[in-house]
Amino acid sequence: MPRFLHMTYDLDDPAVISVIDQVSLWSARFGFFLFDHLELRPNLNILDLACGTGFPLFELAQMHGASCQVTGVDIWKSAIERARLKAKAAQCSNVQLVEADATRLPFEDGSFDLIISNLGINNFPAPDAVLAECFRVSKPGARLVLTTNPSGHMTEFYALFRQTLLELQKPVYLERLQAHEAHRGSKESLSDQLRAAGFRVGKIRESQFHLRYLDGSAFFTHFLTQIGFLEGWRRVVDQEDEERVFALLENKLNLIAHAAGELRLTVPMLYMEGEKQYRHQH
Protein backbone atom coordinates (compact mmCIF):
# COMPACT_ATOMS: atom_id res chain seq x y z
CA MET A 1 0.00 0.00 0.00
CA PRO A 2 1.31 3.51 -0.77
CA ARG A 3 2.69 5.07 2.41
CA PHE A 4 0.59 8.22 2.11
CA LEU A 5 -2.63 6.22 2.52
CA HIS A 6 -1.54 5.30 6.06
CA MET A 7 -0.90 8.88 7.18
CA THR A 8 -3.51 10.30 9.58
CA TYR A 9 -3.97 13.62 11.35
CA ASP A 10 -6.17 14.59 14.28
CA LEU A 11 -7.39 18.12 13.55
CA ASP A 12 -8.01 18.69 17.27
CA ASP A 13 -4.42 17.77 18.22
CA PRO A 14 -2.64 20.97 19.41
CA ALA A 15 0.48 19.86 17.54
CA VAL A 16 -1.47 19.62 14.28
CA ILE A 17 -3.09 22.98 14.95
CA SER A 18 0.36 24.52 15.41
CA VAL A 19 1.47 23.23 12.01
CA ILE A 20 -1.66 24.54 10.29
CA ASP A 21 -1.01 27.82 12.06
CA GLN A 22 2.16 28.32 10.04
CA VAL A 23 -0.03 29.41 7.08
CA SER A 24 0.70 27.19 4.12
CA LEU A 25 2.01 28.55 0.83
CA TRP A 26 -1.45 27.68 -0.52
CA SER A 27 -3.28 29.95 1.94
CA ALA A 28 -0.63 32.66 1.66
CA ARG A 29 -1.07 32.83 -2.13
CA PHE A 30 -4.79 33.43 -1.79
CA GLY A 31 -4.21 35.87 1.05
CA PHE A 32 -1.88 37.99 -1.11
CA PHE A 33 -4.43 37.77 -3.94
CA LEU A 34 -7.14 39.00 -1.57
CA PHE A 35 -5.15 41.98 -0.32
CA ASP A 36 -3.99 42.89 -3.83
CA HIS A 37 -7.61 43.68 -4.74
CA LEU A 38 -9.41 44.56 -1.50
CA GLU A 39 -10.09 48.28 -1.09
CA LEU A 40 -9.28 49.38 2.47
CA ARG A 41 -11.76 51.75 4.09
CA PRO A 42 -12.07 53.23 7.60
CA ASN A 43 -14.76 52.72 10.24
CA LEU A 44 -15.89 49.27 9.14
CA ASN A 45 -17.44 46.43 11.06
CA ILE A 46 -15.81 43.41 9.37
CA LEU A 47 -16.65 39.71 9.48
CA ASP A 48 -14.06 37.06 8.56
CA LEU A 49 -16.10 33.95 7.83
CA ALA A 50 -14.33 30.59 8.31
CA CYS A 51 -11.36 32.35 9.89
CA GLY A 52 -9.64 29.17 11.07
CA THR A 53 -6.63 29.92 13.25
CA GLY A 54 -6.63 33.57 12.25
CA PHE A 55 -5.52 34.06 8.66
CA PRO A 56 -6.34 36.51 7.20
CA LEU A 57 -8.26 37.71 10.27
CA PHE A 58 -5.33 39.36 12.04
CA GLU A 59 -4.00 40.88 8.83
CA LEU A 60 -7.44 42.36 8.19
CA ALA A 61 -7.53 43.82 11.69
CA GLN A 62 -4.04 45.27 11.59
CA MET A 63 -4.19 46.56 8.00
CA HIS A 64 -7.47 48.35 8.63
CA GLY A 65 -6.37 49.72 11.99
CA ALA A 66 -8.16 50.81 15.12
CA SER A 67 -11.17 52.45 13.43
CA CYS A 68 -12.38 49.03 12.29
CA GLN A 69 -13.71 46.11 14.32
CA VAL A 70 -13.05 42.59 12.98
CA THR A 71 -14.96 39.48 14.05
CA GLY A 72 -13.70 36.01 13.17
CA VAL A 73 -16.18 33.13 12.97
CA ASP A 74 -15.51 29.42 12.58
CA ILE A 75 -17.25 26.21 13.61
CA TRP A 76 -13.84 24.60 14.24
CA LYS A 77 -13.48 24.85 18.04
CA SER A 78 -9.75 24.01 18.25
CA ALA A 79 -8.88 26.60 15.61
CA ILE A 80 -10.90 29.30 17.37
CA GLU A 81 -9.15 28.52 20.65
CA ARG A 82 -5.79 28.89 18.92
CA ALA A 83 -6.87 32.18 17.35
CA ARG A 84 -7.90 33.51 20.77
CA LEU A 85 -4.40 32.86 22.07
CA LYS A 86 -2.96 34.72 19.11
CA ALA A 87 -5.33 37.65 19.57
CA LYS A 88 -4.21 37.99 23.17
CA ALA A 89 -0.53 37.68 22.30
CA ALA A 90 -0.78 40.15 19.43
CA GLN A 91 -2.81 42.57 21.58
CA CYS A 92 -5.37 43.03 18.82
CA SER A 93 -8.01 44.99 20.69
CA ASN A 94 -10.17 45.32 17.56
CA VAL A 95 -10.60 41.53 17.15
CA GLN A 96 -13.23 39.23 18.60
CA LEU A 97 -13.69 35.53 17.90
CA VAL A 98 -16.92 33.54 17.81
CA GLU A 99 -17.40 29.80 17.49
CA ALA A 100 -20.48 29.42 15.30
CA ASP A 101 -22.02 27.70 12.29
CA ALA A 102 -21.91 29.90 9.18
CA THR A 103 -25.49 28.89 8.34
CA ARG A 104 -26.74 30.23 11.71
CA LEU A 105 -24.70 33.31 12.53
CA PRO A 106 -25.32 34.77 16.01
CA PHE A 107 -25.52 38.40 14.81
CA GLU A 108 -28.30 40.91 14.28
CA ASP A 109 -29.56 41.76 10.82
CA GLY A 110 -27.46 44.43 9.10
CA SER A 111 -24.44 44.15 11.40
CA PHE A 112 -21.46 44.25 8.99
CA ASP A 113 -20.00 46.60 6.39
CA LEU A 114 -17.61 44.02 4.95
CA ILE A 115 -17.69 40.21 4.97
CA ILE A 116 -14.59 38.28 3.91
CA SER A 117 -14.29 34.56 3.27
CA ASN A 118 -10.86 33.47 2.09
CA LEU A 119 -11.07 29.94 0.61
CA GLY A 120 -14.28 29.28 2.53
CA ILE A 121 -17.09 29.15 0.00
CA ASN A 122 -16.26 25.81 -1.64
CA ASN A 123 -15.74 24.15 1.74
CA PHE A 124 -19.17 24.95 3.17
CA PRO A 125 -21.57 21.97 2.99
CA ALA A 126 -24.46 24.38 2.31
CA PRO A 127 -23.00 27.42 0.52
CA ASP A 128 -26.39 28.85 -0.48
CA ALA A 129 -27.48 28.90 3.17
CA VAL A 130 -24.20 30.60 4.12
CA LEU A 131 -24.65 33.27 1.44
CA ALA A 132 -28.22 33.87 2.66
CA GLU A 133 -26.85 34.46 6.16
CA CYS A 134 -24.19 36.80 4.76
CA PHE A 135 -26.96 38.81 3.12
CA ARG A 136 -28.95 38.93 6.35
CA VAL A 137 -26.10 40.15 8.57
CA SER A 138 -24.70 42.65 6.05
CA LYS A 139 -25.72 46.30 5.97
CA PRO A 140 -27.18 47.88 2.82
CA GLY A 141 -24.22 48.76 0.63
CA ALA A 142 -21.97 46.23 2.36
CA ARG A 143 -19.43 44.22 0.40
CA LEU A 144 -19.07 40.45 0.43
CA VAL A 145 -15.58 39.41 -0.71
CA LEU A 146 -14.80 35.81 -1.62
CA THR A 147 -11.62 34.13 -2.77
CA THR A 148 -11.68 30.57 -3.99
CA ASN A 149 -9.88 28.05 -6.17
CA PRO A 150 -12.55 27.25 -8.76
CA SER A 151 -13.04 24.18 -10.91
CA GLY A 152 -10.05 23.45 -13.10
CA HIS A 153 -7.49 23.43 -10.31
CA MET A 154 -4.59 20.98 -10.45
CA THR A 155 -5.59 20.20 -14.02
CA GLU A 156 -2.50 18.07 -14.57
CA PHE A 157 -3.34 15.81 -11.64
CA TYR A 158 -7.03 15.47 -12.46
CA ALA A 159 -6.28 14.58 -16.09
CA LEU A 160 -4.06 11.75 -14.88
CA PHE A 161 -6.65 10.68 -12.29
CA ARG A 162 -9.28 10.54 -15.04
CA GLN A 163 -6.99 8.53 -17.31
CA THR A 164 -6.30 6.04 -14.53
CA LEU A 165 -10.02 5.58 -13.83
CA LEU A 166 -10.71 5.08 -17.53
CA GLU A 167 -8.25 2.20 -17.52
CA LEU A 168 -10.29 0.54 -14.74
CA GLN A 169 -13.42 0.73 -16.91
CA LYS A 170 -15.67 1.73 -14.00
CA PRO A 171 -17.94 4.57 -15.16
CA VAL A 172 -19.23 5.24 -11.64
CA TYR A 173 -15.74 6.35 -10.58
CA LEU A 174 -15.60 8.85 -13.44
CA GLU A 175 -19.01 10.19 -12.42
CA ARG A 176 -17.81 10.64 -8.84
CA LEU A 177 -14.66 12.41 -10.00
CA GLN A 178 -16.67 14.77 -12.18
CA ALA A 179 -18.96 15.60 -9.26
CA HIS A 180 -15.94 16.12 -7.00
CA GLU A 181 -14.37 18.58 -9.44
CA ALA A 182 -17.66 20.40 -10.06
CA HIS A 183 -18.28 21.15 -6.37
CA ARG A 184 -15.67 23.92 -6.49
CA GLY A 185 -17.86 25.88 -8.85
CA SER A 186 -16.85 28.45 -11.43
CA LYS A 187 -16.90 32.20 -11.91
CA GLU A 188 -20.30 31.83 -13.56
CA SER A 189 -21.85 29.52 -10.97
CA LEU A 190 -20.56 31.58 -8.04
CA SER A 191 -21.91 34.75 -9.68
CA ASP A 192 -25.29 33.05 -9.95
CA GLN A 193 -25.15 32.07 -6.28
CA LEU A 194 -24.36 35.63 -5.21
CA ARG A 195 -27.22 37.02 -7.26
CA ALA A 196 -29.61 34.40 -5.91
CA ALA A 197 -28.66 35.48 -2.38
CA GLY A 198 -29.46 39.10 -3.24
CA PHE A 199 -26.00 40.54 -3.96
CA ARG A 200 -25.00 42.53 -7.01
CA VAL A 201 -21.83 41.06 -8.48
CA GLY A 202 -19.05 43.63 -8.61
CA LYS A 203 -15.31 43.32 -9.00
CA ILE A 204 -14.01 39.99 -10.32
CA ARG A 205 -10.35 39.14 -10.69
CA GLU A 206 -8.70 35.91 -11.86
CA SER A 207 -5.15 34.64 -11.63
CA GLN A 208 -3.22 31.42 -11.14
CA PHE A 209 -0.04 29.99 -9.66
CA HIS A 210 1.80 26.67 -9.72
CA LEU A 211 2.39 24.19 -6.94
CA ARG A 212 5.79 22.53 -7.36
CA TYR A 213 6.96 19.18 -6.02
CA LEU A 214 9.98 17.02 -6.66
CA ASP A 215 7.70 14.14 -7.60
CA GLY A 216 4.33 12.48 -7.00
CA SER A 217 5.46 10.91 -3.74
CA ALA A 218 6.30 14.35 -2.33
CA PHE A 219 2.94 15.64 -3.56
CA PHE A 220 0.92 12.88 -1.88
CA THR A 221 2.77 13.06 1.45
CA HIS A 222 2.64 16.87 1.63
CA PHE A 223 0.71 18.07 4.68
CA LEU A 224 -1.66 20.21 2.61
CA THR A 225 -2.52 17.28 0.33
CA GLN A 226 -3.11 15.05 3.33
CA ILE A 227 -5.49 17.33 5.23
CA GLY A 228 -7.01 19.26 2.34
CA PHE A 229 -7.50 16.97 -0.64
CA LEU A 230 -6.71 13.29 -0.18
CA GLU A 231 -9.90 12.36 1.68
CA GLY A 232 -12.04 13.68 -1.17
CA TRP A 233 -10.00 11.82 -3.77
CA ARG A 234 -10.25 8.57 -1.82
CA ARG A 235 -14.05 8.82 -1.85
CA VAL A 236 -14.00 8.68 -5.65
CA VAL A 237 -13.08 4.97 -5.65
CA ASP A 238 -14.33 2.00 -3.65
CA GLN A 239 -12.10 0.71 -0.89
CA GLU A 240 -11.13 -2.46 -2.75
CA ASP A 241 -9.63 -0.40 -5.59
CA GLU A 242 -8.05 2.32 -3.47
CA GLU A 243 -4.54 0.89 -3.14
CA ARG A 244 -4.32 0.00 -6.81
CA VAL A 245 -5.57 3.37 -8.05
CA PHE A 246 -3.33 5.49 -5.86
CA ALA A 247 -0.27 3.33 -6.41
CA LEU A 248 -0.79 3.78 -10.16
CA LEU A 249 -1.28 7.52 -9.74
CA GLU A 250 1.83 7.91 -7.61
CA ASN A 251 3.91 5.96 -10.11
CA LYS A 252 2.59 7.94 -13.09
CA LEU A 253 3.22 11.26 -11.36
CA ASN A 254 6.74 10.14 -10.47
CA LEU A 255 7.45 9.24 -14.10
CA ILE A 256 6.17 12.62 -15.29
CA ALA A 257 8.23 14.44 -12.68
CA HIS A 258 11.35 12.44 -13.54
CA ALA A 259 11.00 13.35 -17.22
CA ALA A 260 10.23 17.04 -16.56
CA GLY A 261 12.55 17.57 -13.59
CA GLU A 262 9.66 18.37 -11.25
CA LEU A 263 5.90 18.09 -10.82
CA ARG A 264 4.01 21.33 -11.54
CA LEU A 265 0.29 21.69 -10.86
CA THR A 266 -1.74 24.69 -11.98
CA VAL A 267 -4.03 26.35 -9.41
CA PRO A 268 -6.50 29.02 -10.60
CA MET A 269 -7.57 31.80 -8.21
CA LEU A 270 -10.82 33.73 -8.22
CA TYR A 271 -11.57 36.96 -6.35
CA MET A 272 -15.18 38.12 -6.36
CA GLU A 273 -17.09 40.93 -4.69
CA GLY A 274 -20.82 41.13 -4.08
CA GLU A 275 -22.64 44.21 -2.89
CA LYS A 276 -25.86 44.31 -0.91
CA GLN A 277 -28.10 46.75 -2.69
CA TYR A 278 -29.83 49.62 -0.93
CA ARG A 279 -33.59 49.25 -0.92
CA HIS A 280 -35.19 52.43 -2.19
CA GLN A 281 -38.27 53.65 -0.41
CA HIS A 282 -41.30 54.38 -2.60
Structural class, by secondary structure, is alpha/beta
Q: How much strand content do the residues show?
A: 15-25%
- Average pLDDT score: 92
Unreliable stretches, pLDDT < 50, 5 or more residues?
Answer: none
Rg from alpha-carbon coordinates: 20 Å
Specify the helix fraction band. 40-55%
What is the secondary structure topology, with strand pairs?
Layout: H1 14-20, H2 25-37, E1 45-49, H3 57-64, E2 69-74, H4 77-90, E3 95-99, E4 112-118, H5 127-137, E5 138-148, H6 155-168, H7 171-182, H8 187-197, E6 199-213, H9 216-221, H10 223-228, H11 230-234, H12 239-260, E7 263-276
Parallel strand pairs: 1-2, 1-4, 2-3, 4-5
Antiparallel strand pairs: 5-7, 6-7
Helix pairs in contact: 5-8, 6-12
Structure, explained:
This protein has 282 residues and is an alpha/beta fold. It is built from twelve helices and seven strands. It has a seven-stranded mixed beta sheet with strand order 3-2-1-4-5-7-6, sandwiched between helices. Helix 5 packs across helix 8 and helix 6 crosses helix 12. The longest helix has 22 residues.
Task: Provide keyphrases for this structure.
globular; alpha/beta; 7 strands; 282 residues; 7-stranded mixed beta sheet
TL;DR of this structure?
The protein has 282 residues and is of the alpha/beta class.
